[in-house]
Design brief:
The complex is a heterodimer of chains A (346) and B (98).
Chain A lengths: L4 E4 L4 E4 H18 L4 H11 L3 H26 L4 H28 L3 H31 L14 H6 L6 E4 L4 E4 L1 H17 L4 H12 L3 H25 L5 H21 L5 H23 L3 H41 L4
Antiparallel strand pairs in A: 1-2, 3-4
Helix pairs in contact in A: 1-2, 1-3, 1-10, 1-12, 2-3, 2-12, 3-9, 3-10, 4-7, 4-9, 5-11, 7-8, 8-9, 10-12, 11-12
Chain B lengths: L1 H24 L18 H12 L1 H27 L15
The chains are: A mainly alpha (346), B mainly alpha (98).
Amino acid sequence: MEWLYMFMPIAGVSIFWPGLVLIGFSVGVIGGFFGMGGAWMVTPGLNILGFPMAFAIGTDMAHIAGKSMISTMRHAKFGNVDYKLGFIMVIGTFIGIEVGAQLVMYLERLGRIDAVVRYVYVLFLALIAFMVFYDYAKAVQKKKAGAVEGERGTEGITWYKAFHKLNIPPMVHFKTAGFTCSAWLPSGVSFLTGVLAGFLGIGGGLFRMPALVYLIGCPTHIAVGTDLFEVMISGLYGAFTFSLKGRIELVAVFVMLTGAAIGAQIGTVATKYAKGYGIRIAFGIAVICCMISIILKQFGFSNSSAVLILTTIGIMCIYISVIMFKGAAAELREKKAGKQASHPLS
Amino acid sequence: MRRLLKRVLCLFAGIGLALPHLAWASGEAATNLVVVADTRRVSGVLKYIADVYNTDPWLFAVWAVVITAVWGGILGFLMDFIMERSGLDLKSRKILEH
């Protein structure tokens, strides 16, 4: 079975390559659907396959850049990408990632970095999961109480409304996302999410997607597309900075990208058939499972952690694929029925 | 809401204070890590990449970004070509939150 293992010359380890393809595919599906790179699954996944943590982080960065490029191309065609918002956020993201990456190198010099990265991961995953479910519970409560629906239906958390009132010039109108706010809001949010991205070795989508929805005020679908555009750029920058520091395994990146190309199409097209809150809730569940798996690993239950994360990835992939294929089948049936109605004799 | 924000801020401050302690407590101090790619077991393009990694970090970083972007672009266009033949409308969608 030696042919199932590929030698990685830089990391100096032999890796089970079908595992890399599967990770790429699954993360393509999940990342395309949730609007993020999916590195929160890739980093522990690569670590489980045998990559040292520092290499797992750098390899992640390059992989998510390529994968997000594929997903962004698809989302752009749906009109889900607000480029103006994306470009404004790029600067904050870049500075933030560099600050985060420097912090990683500093901690690496101090000693074992793995534990610190895992602690920070868990903290933020808990925070995001709390926010998602709190938002949903509040939205349901408001709906039951008969609250007046806005343009986007009944919303739970509306922190963005307070932030939009900040009148610090320059004020910018984002046509695709459909709101006006101070340019400092997306810049500041992107800097903070960038620091976390660089530190954890992820594109930042995990934090930016909920931040775009809850703090900046994007509709979920636009947040997904714009975030992927951001992840693409920040991922490329992250790939550059981690390559410069020698913490990247290019061979693994290409193997993973091949699987991701197919997965990204499924995940991205599935957003067309999903509702905003459906995406948010699935996102929250995935985040909780990821958090538990990291806690298990931290306490030495590596096998249980691997099983949990692989099960989560598997179930999420099936869930998203079902949405995509059911929606696509219904659309094709409708088209066929429409054609038959307009040409009854054919 | 204010109470919640206060608690979250306290949590962040606590973690910020605990981070250096966690780092120090987690292991022995280490010197800068230097990784050398093993060029003995690879050939062709892989050997070139491994050689560049060992000799010129800047060129390696540029290659890493360029090759990733080009490979991502190629795969994106290829998948786009295939998906457009599926018969699905891939240019419009409705935004529904609920």
